[in-house]
Amino acid sequence: MPHTIIAEIDRDLLAALDARAGLLMLRAILLRYKASGVTAAQVAGLLQELRASAQDGVQDEAREDVILDALDLVTGWCTPQLRVWDEAGGNRAS
Questions:
Q1: Fewest C-beta in 10 Å: which of 29, 62, 63, 92?
Q2: Are 9 and 33 in contact (CB under 8 A)?
Q3: Side-chain-side CA neighbours of residue 80 (13 Å)
Q4: Which residues, 6 or more positions from 14, have their beta carbon under 8 angstroms from its beta carbon?
Q5: Average pLDDT of span 33-38
Q6: For the residues of 8-55, what is the DSSP string, one character each?
């Protein structure tokens, strides 16, 4: 079981991953983490834990793809319009 950041948002994130949510839905959830003071590194860590469990065969490949999409939004590996945390804030995942 992955660690908990903010239980309510974590539940929404897991539900979005299970539903294979699109980028805008994932971004909306990630923005809630940011608004609550959570760092990019914390969310990236959670997503990496979820990805590791997907790679262990617990989840299917499609779910891992959505996890990777969310991770791209967190780390900034996306268009600037979709980026959640920016470099200027020094709050970027590495």
A1: 62
A2: yes
A3: 2
A4: 50
A5: 97
A6: HHHHHHHHHHHTT--HHHHHHHHHHHHHTT--HHHHHHHHHHHHHHHH
